[in-house]
Amino acid sequence: QVLLQQWGAGLLRPSETLSLTCAVYGGSFNYYWWSWVRQSPGKGLEWIGEINHNGRTNYSPSLKSRVTMSVDTSKDQFSLRLNFVTAADTGIYYCVRGSFSGIVAPDQWGQGTQVIVSS
Amino acid sequence: QSVLTQPPSASGTPGQRVTISCSGTISNIGTHTVNWYQHLPGTAPKLLIYNTNQRPSGVPDRFSGSKSGTSASLAISGLQSEDEADYYCAAWDDTLKGVFGTGTKVTVL
After folding, report:
1. CB contact B89 to A (< 8 Å)
2. Three-class secondary structure of residue A54 per DSSP
3. Is the minimum CB–CB distance between B101 and chain A shorter than 8 Å?
4. What is the pLDDT of residues A52-73, one digit of tens each?
5. For residue range A9-48, what is the model confidence (pLDDT) as tens digits?
6. How many helices (H) and strands (E) does chain B have?
7. Which of A76, B56, B76, B105 is deepest in the core (most CB within 10 A)?
């Protein structure tokens, strides 16, 4: 059974960079796409983007100018960076195994990281 | 705002059947498969339906998914109190990439 464990800074000031990492335990890292999803307070789920083991990415058009995703296949980890955060980026961020465009739909989720952007 | 539109709420009494709609376009539901998630507060979302009508192992067969044209539906039959949660459809969109629905809060009366 795969386990996704994520971590990163939970309190940021406006204009800082959000940085989260997700470690995958349970193997088959190279077989899947890996995604990031967030939920802002009082709002629904929002897809941020995805990356595969080769570093190929797809980003949400609304966040594309500020998002960078990367992978470290030697550690079975993938990461999210979101630049120039504002209060609108406050929310719970999840790392997820799978892709809406791929063979495996997003099915296994990390525990979530609460991120607060406040001055 | 999402390109997949769901009713904000749905409700039913225990044992009833509840259906949640998800309205999209040719560039998402009309072309790609649909997934459904159950989201309880304070927990990670749970995949209920993938590939429009497939259930992952462990998901009760009370949950079923379907699609017609540019709309999809999730049906919950034999509604139970533990089904009270938020439900989201999701799909790939040819322009916007990954998209979630607006979400539906299901209340068990």
Report:
1. no
2. coil
3. yes
4. 999 999 999 999 999 999 999 9
5. 999 999 999 999 999 999 789 999 999 999 999 999 999 9
6. 0, 9
7. B76
Question: Using CB atoms, which residue from B32, B88, B98 is nearest to A50?
Answer: B98
User: How many Å apart are CA B16 and CA B79, to the nearest integer?
Assistant: 5
Please give the C-alpha separations between residue A94 and each of A19, A36, A80, B67, B73, in angstroms, as whole numbers.
12, 6, 10, 27, 25
Residue B56 φ then ψ, to 5°: -65, 160
> Which of B2, B32, B47 has the CB atom closest to A44's CB atom?
B2
Residues, chain A: 119
And the tokens for A14? Answer: 């406006």
Query: Does pLDDT of B109 surpass 70?
Result: yes
Token code pair at residue B5: 């539109």
Q: Which of A46, A58, A105 sits opposite B100 (nearest CB)?
A: A46
